[in-house]
Amino acid sequence: MNKVMLIGNVGKEPEVKYVDAGVCVASVLLATTERGYKLQNGTEVPERTEWHNVILWRGLAEVVEKYVHKGDKLFIEGQIRTRNYDDRNGIKRYVTEIWAESMEMLTPKGQASAEPSQGGDTIHNI
């Protein structure tokens, strides 16, 4: 099973483009943060943020294009995908991405992204 569930904040404005036959694809940089904590022996474990490249297609991408902005909180369900390419120096590079199957927007309409919502709109890839 290849299943990923993330709740995080959009780190920059999404990139949206249209490819073959007008299919919409969006790329979202999503930050997830694990809170810091203290072990029983007193050792402090610091907060840790991971950055995820999330790819959304078709209907999901169109929703991103219209409604998702830097700072928004999203819940993403999808799969981990890896790919590789040769950069301009001929060095093979590997990329890990999350291909979204559904998305829930958690930022309340008209509010800053710092506050979680009591619920949101769930959209599934069509």
- Using the coordinates shown, work out and report the CATH topology: OB fold (Dihydrolipoamide Acetyltransferase, E2P)
Number of domains: 1
The unreliable regions are: 113-119
Number of helices: 1
Please state the average pLDDT score: 91
**N-to-C order of helices and strands:** EEEEEEHEEE
Please tell me the CATH architecture by its name. Answer: Beta Barrel
| The CATH top-level class label | Mainly Beta
Written description of the protein model:
The protein is globular and about 60 Å long. The two termini are 21 Å apart. The relative contact order is 0.24. The chain is mainly β. Strand 2 and strand 3 form a beta hairpin. It has 1 helix and 9 strands. The longest helix is centred in the middle third of the chain and has 10 residues. The protein has one domain: OB fold (Dihydrolipoamide Acetyltransferase, E2P) (Beta Barrel), CATH 2.40.50. The chain has a 5-stranded mixed barrel. The chain has a two-stranded antiparallel ribbon with strand order 4-5.
Describe the structure concisely for a colleague.
The chain has 126 residues and is mostly beta strands. It is built from one helix and nine strands, in the order E-E-E-E-E-E-H-E-E-E. It has a five-stranded mixed beta barrel. Strands 4-5 form a two-stranded antiparallel ribbon.
